[in-house]
Amino acid sequence: MHPYRISIALQQEVDRQINELLHLKLIEPSESEWAHPIVCVSKKNGSIRLCVDYRHLNSFTIADAYPMQNAKD
Hints:
The protein is of the alpha+beta class. It is 27% helix and 14% strand. It has helices at 8-23, 55-58, and strands at 38-42, 48-52. Strands 1-2 form a two-stranded antiparallel ribbon.
């Protein structure tokens, strides 16, 4: 998958958030062919949230034949 275009105005904030996540070791660099593009979502306070678009991956996901029961069952 190719990355989505990000406006120049958002690019600096995206870079800052990615560098922070790398520093905290919550993410790591990857060259995987299964990498997916990020999507920027505006929050109510004006900041942005980084999300990942997994729609392409979901098309390859196979549903469980025997789904787990929830606590109410």
